[in-house]
Amino acid sequence: MNEIKVGLLGLGTIGTGVAKLLMTNADLIAAKVGARITLKKIADLDITTDRGIALPADILTTNADEVLTDPEISVVIELIGGYEPAKRFVLKAIENGKHVVTANKALLALHGEEIYPAAARKGVEVLFEAAVGGGIPVISAIRGNMAANNFSTVFGILNGTCNYILTRMTKEGVDFADVLKKAQELGYAEADPTFDIEGVDTAHKLALLVSLCFGTRVTFSDIHTEGISSLSSVDIKFARDFGYKIKLLAIGKRDGDRVEARVHPTMIPVNNPLADVDGAFNAIRFTGDFIGPVMFYGRGAGMDPTASAVVGDIIEVSRNIVAGIGRRCAPLGYCDEAVATLPLKPMGEIESKYYIRFSAVDRPGVLARISGILGKYDISIESMVQSGRMAGEEVPIVIMTHEARESDVRTALDEIDTFDIITQKSQVIRIEDNLE
């Protein structure tokens, strides 16, 4: 039987899972590929820590060049994460004619426009199934079975840490800071959780999904990004009262010749399937012109699910090698010359329904002043709640609007927040009633 030799950069949690899977299911993989896939070299700065798997000492190295320049290695697996030296390593692997498999969504979201053309010039593959949704096979579905569809929307719950926090806040009525601390204790959140809770990780993944679905170049810096750190249990309760749940939602929409790409806390109806995605699970929902709405659901992170996706990409590349096929599919699923640069719809032009929570002193005329400014900017009120009336003290006033323009809402709130009756900055959450 033929042998395909691969090299691994990074022996952290996911790298360990990949090595374990390649060794544990080696016979099964060989039966499906028609060749035995062998880990020839593993490079990591730390090759002494026990990872719980038996690895031959001679395949471990601290020198990445032993992977990148070895002429026998056909596929390089990049699992070190981050921007550098990952970018340099990936480009060097490509320059040396090696296929690349990576889980590095941050690298591709920021530097894909440099990496993809380099791979095209050398005729090699860049595969990244594990970069979005962990073990959920969403990217291969977009590039494969659903490739004939024009996609109109893609929505995603793409960060397990945020979803775990919001699920606990919803079910237990606890505040953000308390749940975050518990998530860190349980290992669901990093010691520095900024990338997760501020939406950066989700935006990296959305950049890839929008590029794949709409055939356009979208980078991380193009995406409007908000996190969940400003949410309170009060907002969760009001959302429930109005028939919604709050999720950190990645939103991609095709709007004529433009694209929307944004990440922010969003109220979605409790009867929508995305509202039932709880805990550390992820989900991605698409709408195609022929397939209609489709949702993928599963574990979005963790050693085993992510390793499964990485090895799935290795198997795809290996099958091509066995068949004598080079670069069968471009990374974004479109021929390189067909990838467009569709303009992004400015955030100020977005139209949505809004939940707005004001913290105001309870005195006569407050509601009139607030509603007067909203009316001035053509923001129509659908419903309103004022609870806990205690004359002279702070009370929450919650307003649900009809569809309004983002720029008008922001201008109105900037004006209202200067009133002496407003005790803190207004809380705004966008509402998505139609997730088709």
TrEMBL record:
CDD domains recorded: ACT_HSDH-Hom (cd04881)
Pathways per UniProt: Amino-acid biosynthesis; L-methionine biosynthesis via de novo pathway; L-homoserine from L-aspartate: step 3/3; Amino-acid biosynthesis; L-threonine biosynthesis; L-threonine from L-aspartate: step 3/5
Ligand binding (L-homoserine): E190
Source domain of life: Bacteria
Listed EC numbers: 1.1.1.3
Sample GO molecular function, one term: homoserine dehydrogenase activity
Protein name (record): Homoserine dehydrogenase
Organism, scientific name: Geobacter metallireducens (strain ATCC 53774 / DSM 7210 / GS-15)
Native organism taxonomy: Bacteria, Pseudomonadati, Thermodesulfobacteriota, Desulfuromonadia, Geobacterales
Record gene name: hom
